[in-house]
UniProtKB/TrEMBL annotation:
Residues 240-343 form the DNA repair metallo-beta-lactamase domain. GO terms for biological process: DNA recombination; double-strand break repair via nonhomologous end joining; interstrand cross-link repair; telomere maintenance. It is found in: Nucleus. The gene is Dclre1c. The keyword Nucleus applies. This is Protein artemis. Interacts with LIG4; the interaction is direct. Interacts with ATM. Interacts with BRCA1. Interacts with PRKDC. Interacts with TP53BP1. Also exhibits ATM- and phosphorylation-dependent interaction with the MRN complex, composed of MRE11, RAD50, and NBN. Coiled coil: none annotated. The keyword DNA damage applies. It comes from Cricetulus griseus (Chinese hamster).
Amino acid sequence: MSSFQGQMEEYPTISIDRFDRENLKARAYFLSHCHKDHMKGLRAPSLKRRLECSLKVFLYCSPVTKELLLTSPKYRFWEKRVKAIEIETPTQIALVDEASGEKEEVVVTLLPAGHCPGSVMFLFQGSNGTVLYTGDFRLAKGEASRMELLHSGGRVKDIQSVYLDTTFCDPRFYQIPSREECLKGILELVRSWITRSPHHVVWLNCKAAYGYEYLFTNLSEELGVQVHVDKMDMFRNMPDILHHLTTDRNTQVHACRHPKAEEYFQWNKLPCGITSKNKAMLHTISIKPSTMWFGERTRKTNVIARTGESSYRACFSFHSSYSEIKDFLSYICPVNAYPNVIPIGLTVDKVMEFLKPLCRSSQSAEPRYKPLGKLKRTRTILLDSVLEAGNPRTKDC
DNA sequence: GCGATCAGCT
DNA sequence: CACAGCTGATCGC
């Protein structure tokens, strides 16, 4: 759960993913993805009033997030005030104070965050330096190094601060099986069940949130079976998702939901209400996607766990693991990193302790003693930083 | 009637 | 296995 309060030190006149309290005064709003815990205040009467009298205030987000947001009637009043920004397209935005006329320009770039459809990170460049707000993200090891717009002149940009998704920033969550491993595990479980007979069906027990779509599309693609869902109008303009979904209950893979779904399932009933096909009872298993993690040295076990006669848990994560966070942040090597989330059982100070060694300042002072094996590399590091004109970044990052 | 908050549940 | 959000109770306007 994000505890980011909406504002960044460097650019306090913009608000991201929070729309209450201090954020009511923002000159521009940003939404990283369409999850409710990042939309606090976004439909409150106070912000609605602000919008009516401040006609130059806009909400910026990705095209997909705009589509998902405006599909909900509760947020449709934003229609004339949302500006979609293309992914990976640096875009200049004027931050104007409507009372004083004071103006500041920033360039924002949206980078894919891999959290849910439309989810992005925001890279801001302006007079107070370059900062990165990650929103919620899941990026595999090495993905930051493959993002062109994080780079300039062949090296990573000089980033002052990163506002980071630290959901799993705890060595306890050292590794989480990759998206591909998890997908393959679920795919083979579903395949092994539904190929037994046309009466064998699977219920994917997913939460009410965006983020499972790539699971549905991959299963559908691989198995040639559309996934039953309750609603799909939000995807009406996203054919790559839409074509893999159906509201026709006559399919072997279901991701429909109902408040009493667990109770239904015990009575061999799917959330959409069906129990049989052509008068023959269905044979049903449930698969609950949930996060599974492993310590640095603990043996990785199966990405599928059987939890009952007909029930399974399957590994699935919307967020980067500790090692993925380390890889990301140490590659960016900012001056500062601030946690957007405090994992349960940890404190702000503890999370900062984990982030500090991955940032720049901690690398500048050479330790008094170094293992002999590292001495040679130190020389090349010093040379690198001399060659990096005007950039005080130290290259152990 | 609506919103904010919290407990409980998943 | 810990994310995200729903439901329902309660309180205040």
